[in-house]
Amino acid sequence: MDQGTEFYNVHFKNLMKKYKVNHYSTYSTKKAAIVERVIRTLKERLYKYFSLNGSYRWIDILSDIVKDYNNRWHRTIRMKPCDITKSNEKKILNSVYKHIKLATPRRYKVGDIVRISKNKHVFKKGYTPNWTTELFKIVKVRITNPTTYLLEDMQGTPISGGFYEEELQKTKNADVYLVEKVLRRRGKKVYVKWLGLDSSNNSWIDSDNIL
Q1: What is the pLDDT of residues 45-86, one digit of tens each?
Q2: In this structure, are strands 113-116 and 168-170 parallel, antiparallel, or unpaired?
Q3: Which residues, in sequence order, are CB contacts of 190 under 8 Å at separation 6+?
Q4: Which of 16, 19, 89, 195 would staple 23 via disulfide (CB 3.0–4.6 Å)?
Q5: Which residue stretches, if any, does this entry annotate as coiled coil (predicted)?
Q6: Are 135 and 151 in contact (CB under 8 A)?
Q7: CB 108 within 8 A of CB 114
Q8: How far apart are CA 31 and CA 52, in angstroms?
Q9: Over the stretch 20-45, which tens digit does the pLDDT of each residue have?
């Protein structure tokens, strides 16, 4: 789900706990196509109502539209949504997603050091780096389909949300860091700002460690 406050509040979190729902966000560019299609259908029916009645008051009609939607035969599931029960939901799920391949063997493991994909905006230059300079550590592998990963930065601070495999890149040189700027010098020590890290990570290092 997205990061809206309607999903991240005490009441909703308690509801998720009550029904044992795994509640998390991926912070990904991937979208929930099925949910968005349902929303689009509801919007289309609402706007038909608005046009016919010359009013944008939706609260009086929304529940009726949802009820009508749930009582109509759906091509994808080959039945009415209101007829889905605990006893047949697994059969329907398998039927709808029978063409979907199960997740392939996981590419990364806990402890791997990775970079995160920079979600490329359509106007960003193609020759700019596509991966973060900052490094992160995988702390948990979620058994989802597809697999998602939880990360923390190199100071041990958890990173919000989960990430898909294609949004991560394992680094070959986890112990190599780039210096953005030398801020101060003191004998054989230099105080540096690291590329891709904020100023809280500035530190003194031996000048001999800079290549």
Answers
A1: 998 888 888 888 889 899 999 999 999 999 888 899 999 999
A2: antiparallel
A3: 182, 184, 204, 205, 206, 207, 210
A4: 16
A5: none
A6: no
A7: yes
A8: 32
A9: 887 766 666 565 667 888 888 999 99
